[in-house]
Structures are given as structure tokens and as C-alpha cells.
Amino acid sequence: MAISYETPAFTIPVVDISPYLSNPQSVEAEQVVEQIRAACVTSGFFQITGHGISEALQDQIFSAAKTLFALPEDDKRKLAGKPGRGYEIIGSQVLEAGKKPDLKEGFMIGREIPDNKPPYRPFQDPNIWPDSSQIPEHQFKQPLLEYHQALSDLSVQLMHILARGLKGFDTSVFDEYGKDPIANVRLLHYPPHPQTDDKELVGAGAHTDFGAITLLLQDGHSGLQVLNQHTRQFVDVPPQEHAYVVNVGDMLDYWTSGQYKSNIHRVVRFLTSKV
Fold this sequence. Notes:
Jelly Rolls; 4-stranded mixed beta sheet; 11 strands; IPNS-like_sf; metal-binding
């Protein structure tokens, strides 16, 4: 027999998950689970605080991103690789039909896989790193790998919370899917948009994410918007300092038979630079 739940109103809450991380069996932890479940069945988006990733490490990542994207264009292009690795040039992605190429540049890394040899699995080619003469390893490679591990560990905890929100399932229900994950860290830079009324020019066109979950750290600039499926209007997601925006992707939507919603979102135009 199918299990039904009362669907709450559209919500993008800010949830302190520290009670769950410290004691998953506490009453406070159950409240965390319920808040996140309510978000997942409506907007598919929520923000988390109390996640345990240090502000110092986050600041290192912002600094690393700014240093990378400030490199000369020719140097950045030499760091381009296959999908999921290395530098992504501005305009290389079009996420929304009818819009111009997204006005953003990126850089992606994944796990360092020991003895990784060709043929490589999709999205698991070796990482591409700037030469240490361009950016010293302690300013870029080392903090990014530390950050990748921290986000991977946090994602495991979030998947347990999401599993528990389904009711009747063990928190380990998704563990088998995450044993050898394709989990990447992607740095993004949205340069200032030109002064124009061109509505086809966007930072990132309206889209859904294809993975299980996405964790996004914003730098204080607004721009992320989520579609309210009921009103068909886009809703701003105000940045919360040091918080992560978490959203359900297509894969998790599929795993839960649509109970958790993979929702359309976009990044609107910027007048100032955003990393």
C-alpha cells in the first residue's frame, strides 16, 4: 500500500543540522529530518548551517577560485580537459533552450584515484592542476582536495537524513549507490554582465541538476532563483553566509519515485563579479 503524506507549502528553509550530526537519535535531530523532508517534497531546495565545514576552509576555497580565475585567459584555457575535469571557458554551456550561452566560467576536480589508468570511467579522468609556478599547491590543490573530502563526508550524512525522511526506510538505503560516487567540486565565476536589456543573456539558464544532490556555497551575491511550481514564478534564494544551498537532483527524484522534487532553477544576471 502506498504511503501518503500531507504536502506542506512551498518552502526553502534554513536548517541547522548540527543536532543531527551530534546525536541522530535525539528529538532535535528528528526536527531536522522533518524540516528537510518538507523542503524536498515541495521546492526541492533548502539551506544548511551547522554542517561542520570550517569557515577557514571555505575562505581558502574562495581565495583559490579568485586566484585561478584571475589567471591570463591563455593560461586558463591550457587547463581545459574532458567533461568533469579542468577549466570550462565562458560560454561553453547552454543550459536553457532559447537563451544565449551561460555567462560563467568554471573549474572542476574529483577524487584523486590511486593507480587510475585508461580507459577512464566517465567523469573520472585524472584531475588537472595549475602548475605550482602559477598557483602554489598549498593555495589551490591542497585546499581543494581537503574540501572535496569534507563535502563528500557531509554528503553521506545528508543522504542519511534524506533517507530517514522517506519514513519506513533505513538511513542506509542510499549507501549502496554512493560506494563509488562521481562527486565533483566545481568552482564557478560569474563575471559582470554587460549593460544590456537582452533577456536571453543569463548567468545560468533554467535547468535541473542530473545528480543526486548538489551543495552550493554562495559568496554573498544573490542571483540564484528557484521555480515555484504552483505560481510558476521564480523565487530568490538569499545567500546565507557560510551556509550551503542543497538541492535535490534528477537522480534522487527518480530514486524516490518523485517524492523528492528535482526543481528548475537558474542564475540571473549580475552587475558585479560573483565567485
